[in-house]
Automatic annotation (TrEMBL):
It catalyses: tRNA(Arg) + L-arginine + ATP = L-arginyl-tRNA(Arg) + AMP + diphosphate. Keywords: Aminoacyl-tRNA synthetase, ATP-binding, Cytoplasm, Ligase, Nucleotide-binding, Protein biosynthesis. Coiled coil: none annotated. Monomer. Residues 460-577 form the DALR anticodon binding domain. It is found in: Cytoplasm. HAMAP family: Arg_tRNA_synth. This is Arginine--tRNA ligase. Residues 1-87 form the Arginyl tRNA synthetase N-terminal domain.
């Protein structure tokens, strides 16, 4: 059910009948205030301008041609020429009826597209740190949303699994194996990387060996490949545990690391040269872009192959975009990467477009995000100033949630309590991130995210259980209930119904813009409207059987919508808390 689309169609027709061109924009939006109705159409003004007529006059004409029988109970002109649309309670009732009896609460399947989503992307032999959290959590919510809408989603985990550091890592792994009789001391990846680096910096002979291994690895040497694979394997096994804890849908099959594109790089460089886009400059191969200027105001040079023959992060991202279009047949590619990499991506994609690797009809979208900051407003660090390991962060979340839910549910059995703590703790960390507009930095604050009031996971999870408890008390069979009709008489019923019916519109915004916070705001709003409705419109004590059943159905649709909505965010729900 997409009321906005339905109204857009109707208003378009009326605009055209009033003299507007066939491609006019009806600009139908959800109204921000109840007094403006449920929706408003703002397209009259620009149409009036192009027709050279007074907007109110055009608005009158549009209304005369606007047939909203059975949809709206009132349509009025406001201000300079806005059209306010008030939905008919009967239309709302029928739509709620249809939505509540469907598994998908009436959400239609979009025209299926192949969408590649680049997210998470940790680095090999490094612990996944909080910097990867945002990409993983936000990207996964986008993936779930796109899949729910019926798209074919390809998860692309662009793992950093290639580069000159692997010579050093292989040399150190070898040393470890010799000293510990084959035991892999890779459990602490951070420590492993640091120790490898230390040897590289301090031991000339080790550094020599490391450099030789880089060359051998790139040449396809069997021993080096095996050692490299071990490093990748151990890292991704550890990351997989984290994904599971986070309730993130990535699997080992989704790994499409940098190494995948490695064999394509010589061809890319040769092709860019042949196309006259890349040139030799001081021994390196460079693409000069007029679109970007360096400090001297000259076209910026983007190196795609170094003097020593090595390729760069940009070269890989050029090949990667091409591959996603050519081989994966992407209709659209979404990248969830922090904002500091914006220029890098723009440069890579400018080259991709110039070379004709991906047509303009296939969008390459950078959905960027800011940093995670501590309460002091500085980059999130441990007390001693180190990077916070994700596993430690999740352990702490669980510990805090455990304390919280134990206090609130002293009589709950231990295993249920543990499951609840997990849902609340992990949910809190994820929701705190998801609920903020991703483009800005955000402050990581335990007390805020675990609060039972406000737009938080615990509040939303609790709101869901409250709706469920109404059913437990009603002790009614769902199939029986579905036979009873919804009737809408009270304003609070109408407002809740109208908002519930905007679920699909919300999903579409998240899918289009990659902004899960829009879903959080929506669900929070639904929970608030439900509270108001629950307080003012008695459900179990309704004065007629009809009203009672109708209100139970509104409650049922609320429960279903909250659950599905939280699902698209990757937030677990529980039956009681
Ligand atoms: N591994 C990279 C990092 O940790 C992120 C990769 C993002 N994806 C991409 N296609 N460049 O910074």
């Amino acid at each position: 059910m997409n009321i906005q689309a339905l109204l857009s169609d109707k208003v378009s027709q009326a605009l055209i009948a009033a003299g507007a061109p066939a491609d006019c924009e009806p600009q139908v939006r959800q109204s921000a205030k109840v007094q403006f109705g449920d929706y408003q159409a703002n397209g009259v003004m620009s149409v009036a301008k192009s027709l050279g007529k007074p907007p109110r006059q055009v608005a009158e004409l549009v209304i005369a041609n606007l047939d909203l029988t059975g949809i709206a109970s009132k349509v009025e002109i406001a201000g300079p020429g806005f059209i306010n649309i008030f939905l008919d309670p009967e239309f709302l009732a029928k739509s709620v009826d249809a939505a509540v009896s469907s598994d998908r609460v009436g959400v239609t399947i979009s025209e299926p597209k192949t969408v590649v989503v680049d997210y998470s992307a940790p680095n090999v032999a490094k612990e996944m740190h909080v910097g990867h959290v945002r990409s993983t959590i936000i990207g996964d919510a986008a993936v779930r949303t796109l899949e729910f809408l019926g798209h074919k989603v390809i998860r692309a985990n662009h793992v950093g699994d290639w580069g000159t550091q692997f010579g050093m890592l292989i040399a150190y792994l070898e040393k470890q194996q010799q000293e510990n009789a084959g035991e892999m001391a890779l459990s602490d990846l951070e420590e492993f990387y640091r120790a490898a680096k230390k040897h590289y910096d301090e031991d000339a002979e080790f550094a020599e060996r490391a450099r030789a291994y880089v060359v051998k690895l790139q040449g396809g040497d069997e021993y080096c490949r095996t050692m490299w694979r071990k490093l990748v394997d151990v890292t991704m096994t550890q990351n997989q545990i984290t994904y599971q804890r986070l309730n993130v849908t990535l699997t080992r099959d989704d790994v499409m690391g940098e190494s995948l594109y490695n064999p394509m790089l010589p061809g890319i460089v040769a092709d860019l040269k042949a196309k006259g886009l890349a040139v030799e400059s001081e021994g390196a191969t460079v693409v000069f872009l007029d679109e970007y200027q360096n400090k001297e105001g000259e076209p910026m040079g983007v190196i795609i192959q170094k003097k020593d023959g090595g390729y760069l992060y940009t070269t890989t991202d050029i090949a990667c975009a091409k591959y996603r279009y050519e081989t994966l047949h992407a209709d659209r590619v979404l990248y969830f990467i922090d904002s500091r990499q914006h220029q890098h991506l723009m440069q890579a994609w400018t080259i991709v477009r110039k070379a004709g690797y991906v047509p303009d009809s296939v969008p390459l979208e950078h959905h960027m995000f800011g940093m995670m900051l501590g309460k002091d407003g500085k980059p999130f660090k441990t007390r001693s100033g180190g990077t916070v390991k994700l596993t430690d962060l999740l352990d702490e979340a669980l510990e805090r949630a455990r304390r919280l839910v134990t206090e609130k549910n002293p009589d709950m059995p231990a295993d249920e309590l543990e499951a609840l703590a997990n849902a609340v703790g992990i949910g809190a960390v994820k929701y705190a991130d998801l609920s903020k507009n991703r483009t800005t930095d955000y402050i990581f604050d335990w007390d805020n995210m675990l609060a039972f009031e406000g737009n938080t996971a615990p509040y939303m999870q609790y709101a869901y259980t409250r709706v469920l408890s109404v059913f437990r008390k009603a002790a009614i069979d769902e199939t029986e209930l579905l036979k009873a009709p919804v009737v809408i008489r009270e304003d609070r019923e109408a407002q809740l119904a109208a908002r519930l019916l905007q679920f699909e519109e919300t999903l579409n915004v998240v899918a289009r813009d990659g902004t899960p916070h829009v879903m959080c705001t929506y669900l929070y709003d639904v929970a608030g409207l439900f509270s108001g409705f629950y307080e003012h419109c008695p459900i179990l004590a309704a004065d007629s059987e009809e009203a009672r059943n109708s209100r139970l159905k509104l409650a049922l649709l609320t429960a279903k919508t909250l659950k599905l909505g939280l699902d698209t965010l990757g937030i677990e729900t529980v039956e009681r808390m």
